[in-house]
Amino acid sequence: MTAIWWIRRDLRLADNPALAAALAAGDQVVPAFVLDPVLLNSSYNSPRRTAFLLAGLRSLDTELHARGSRLIVRGGDPEHVLASLRAETGASSIFAQRDVSPYAIQRDQRVQRTLPLVLTDGLSVRPPGEVVRQDGGAYTVFTPFSRAWLARPLPGPRDLLPAPARILTPSLASLPIPEATVDHASFPAGEPQALRRLEAFCARRPFPIGRYALDRDRPSIDGTSGLSPYLRFGMLSARQAVVAALRAADAASSKEARHGAEVWLNELIWREFYLSILAAFPDVRRRAFRADLGRVRWSNDRADFQAWCEGRTGYPMVDAGMRQLSATGWMHNRVRMIVASFLVKHLLIDWRWGERWFMQNLVDGDPAANNGGWQWSAGTGTDAAPYFRVFNPVLQGRKFDPEGAYVRCWVPELAHVPASAIHAPWELTEAALAQAGVRLGREYPAPIVDHAFARARVLAAYTESRRRQSPQGRG
After folding, report:
1. What is the pLDDT at residue 475?
2. Which of 6, 308, 330, 351 is catalytic?
3. Active-site residue, from 45, 333, 426, 464
């Protein structure tokens, strides 16, 4: 018998429930990837993310060849492609990893109406819908979700599924994997690369994970795992990451090191939380989770938005982050919060504009985590930062980039500004700026908006939205 393994966001051989199910169901397995024009041509698509995906497919094909198999690539509507592939092979079943995005759910339901598609878990450690309140409803606050998540049996090394030694695949026609139009040099793709990064972060001395709690908010330090793109496409499973975090915590030689591993585990649980939110409340992709903040009168000035996108707001920490994103397709997580807060609360621009821009540029852009992060920053989502919290980008820069190393890297025109003023160069005299080779409005822009004015404006806009949503405000 033959089974089809329909690959989507699980580009790996180890710890892959969909592949394991296909191997159990058939003597031969067809590893198939469908180039779906709906996804490839989406307004949320990122050329860098596509390039990373295509490189990941090449790596997976190499791993399959080493096991006597090969990747079968087809293009078109998944339902039609899979029907054709099933007719060619006589496959009795199709196995795929369940996804939670609205498009994925609709696509899979459509395929299941005509084809024997079996969905397995694997996108997260705890499938969305498993960790719920006593009344069966979804948690909408992270802390009780994380407590419930941790209270369940934790995975261990024995729970990880081994990669198969051999996969028998019939001879079939396949499209060549397309060439990418941009590079993704910051993140070499593939399962072997993901496993090397995981080991380097969690298992090799001096165990960077042990300092994660101390270093993770410093964008000039290589203090994070760098695994988010690999988790995005399943080149590494969430379970593999969690098992590594738990092992690192158990092996820690100090309270500090154990705390570092626990904090990274907590970040992995945030990923699970946002997946569960998207599964339970698919409308969060289109509107604010908090109804009282769903009617904000946004400014949505396109010139301001363009300045933010290009990293020329006049606030160095914001501009450094946006330029890092443009140059690499990635941005440090602390800086993501700073630039998101700035767009929404300083420029009064709809958070959905920023959410889309991130998806169009991030190599690790994930619908659930990206939406969750943006709604958190905007104060509109589940477990959000208080709507009245407005990050001061100057103070954030001084706290998390005190020497200005991150800013100097991405905003080189400020390279000679002293650390004491690098996050607020307008505070220097013209003579001091000239000595540093900077003229505001020429080499580097003046601030696009005043912080105090912006804070008062956004608080008034949010207060008005809440008033309009209240019973007294309804017409």
Report:
1. 29
2. 351
3. 333
Phi, psi dihedrals of residue 120, rounded to the nearest 5°: -115, 165
Options 130, 267, 426, 464, the catalytic residue = 267
| Annotated catalytic residue 298 | yes
Specify whether 330 is catalytic: no
Q: Assess whether 149 carries a catalytic annotation.
A: no
Can 374 be counted among the known catalytic residues?
yes
Residue tagged active-site, from 6, 374, 376, 410: 374
Of 88, 266, 298, 464, the catalytic one is: 298
270 is catalytic: yes
Q: What is the pLDDT of residues 30-77, one digit of tens each?
A: 999 999 999 999 999 999 999 999 999 999 999 999 999 999 999 999
**What residue ranges define each of the domains in the chain, with the CATH number in brackets?**
2-122 (3.40.50.620), 124-161+189-280 (1.25.40.80), 291-469 (1.10.579.10)
pLDDT band at 399 (very low <50, low <70, confident <90, very high): very high
Note the pTM of the prediction, 2 decimals. Answer: 0.95
What pLDDT shows up at residue 473? 38
